[in-house]
Amino acid sequence: MELAISAVTGELVSRFLSLLVNKYHSSRAYSEEKQMKRLEQLLLRARTVVEEADRRYITNSGMLEQLNMLAEALYRGYWALGAFRYRSLEDTPIKEEEEVINSSPPKRLRTFHGSARKKKATYLLELQGALESLEDAVSSMKEFVIILGGFDRMLRRPYDAYLYNDNIMFGRHAEKQKLLNFLLQHSSPGGAPAVIPVIGGPAVGKRTLVAHVCKDERVSSHFSSILHLNGDSFCRIADHSSLLSGKVLLVIELIAHVDQEVSAKFCSTLASMDSGSKVIIVSRSKSSEKLATVKPIFLNTLPYEEFGYLFKTLAFGSSDPAQHPQLARIADEMAREMQSGWSLVAANLLADVMRRNLNIHFWLSMLSRMRRFVERNFSMFGEHPQLLVLRRHQIDVTDFFLHPASPLRILPSCTTGSSRTEITEERQLLPNVRLGDLVVDTGAMPQGDFNVVSWESRVPPYTSFVHFASIGGPSVAEDTPLCGRKRKSI
């Protein structure tokens, strides 16, 4: 009898505990679903405010800080939502076709899956953190939205059109507004021209930001002319003082460090400019800060969440990442590796190739190729390829192609505006091939030397990144680069 009672009691306790566990998991799943739905609602509200703010001329510095905070919370929220959606895929095995396509060790791609593992609790904490951050940002937006309605509207499409049409600049909300405010602010009569430097590392979007602002209707109508000068033409502008008459906006791209000679020539140029004129300096060097009359604008690399949002949207194009969670996970991994060591040019190049084939094995192949490309250049030249590009040093891109017949080396173009143009005409006679086309089909590779177009920007100033490519040779002559060039605006 006691054994029967004990057995019945054990069964009842077991069923009770099972009921509690099921109820706990059910309530937790419901809680997670509620949080995701709440985050989606907040993202829609935040995105609406950011887009509307980006279409207004905001002159209040405090509102620009709020806009910056809201944008950061917005991109963090998008990243957390995407990561939480594909959390269940962490233990999903994927057949590694890359082992057949390439001869690299099969453990490489398995390492990607191992490094991407996270506990569900971690994803939930990230989701909760993003939700709280966005709730805080949105809760303080009531006054922001009311005041926002009092600012004039810009006559252009919202920034988000760029993500699908590639013709409007992405992000940099506060920086765009600060530069617009500087240009449209009335100067005191008889005063010297105001100067603002835009300072940042290579390929972070300095010239794109300036070109985007100069394209604004109010800016173009505010000045009688807009002149774009590089270091060489800037030194000769004093011989053509007639170009500086009237209310002129002078955009100067300085490559070199600002020394006493450059500073003296700059002051001489300012003295010959009329009242009301303004100057924008585009530079990588903080030394240009000494030429400023107002606080400079510093451009850093995009935060990971914002960079990842941009990369995924470019890579997926019109497709919804939520419908391709495995691809979204791979895109996040690629964005994480590119965000610190790569440029926006490289991100656009890879996204353009990946957008052509929304196949998980192809995307894994691209991730593997990217890693081998970095490793090979580290092994051959001792530096990350992005650093080699900055030094105009040759890079080996063989690993990006399937079954290449011979090694392929590329010599990056010199900086746009450089005086090293003595062989441009010779190189322009060579055939041009898009790098993305070569990655997809090596049969498109010409015989002998050629020019490779890594990317053509569809955003002002419409720069084409064209480099000299050599097949099979041990090295490329590094004293004969092909200068980057700008395409005409369409």
Helix fraction?
A: 40-55%
Radius of gyration: 27 Å
Order of helices and strands: HHHHHHHHEHHEHEHEEHHHHHEEHEHEEE
Structural class: alpha/beta
Number of beta strands: 11
Mean pLDDT, nearest integer? 76
What is the terminal separation in angstroms?
A: 92 Å
Beta-strand content estimate: 5-15%
Overall 3D geometry? Answer: flat
Can you offer a commentary on this structure?
The protein is flat. The protein is α/β, with parallel strands linked by helices and 490 residues long. It has helices at residues 2-53, 61-85, 98-101, 107-115, 120-139, 142-148, 162-165, 173-184, 206-214, 217-222, 231-236, 260-271, 304-316, 325-341, 344-355, 360-381, 385-390, 424-428, 435-440, and strands at residues 194-200, 225-230, 248-254, 278-283, 297-299, 395-396, 408-411, 432-434, 450-456, 463-471, 485-486. Strands 6, 7, 8, 9, 10 and 11 form a 6-stranded mixed sheet that branches. Strands 2-3-4-1-5 form a 5-stranded parallel sheet.
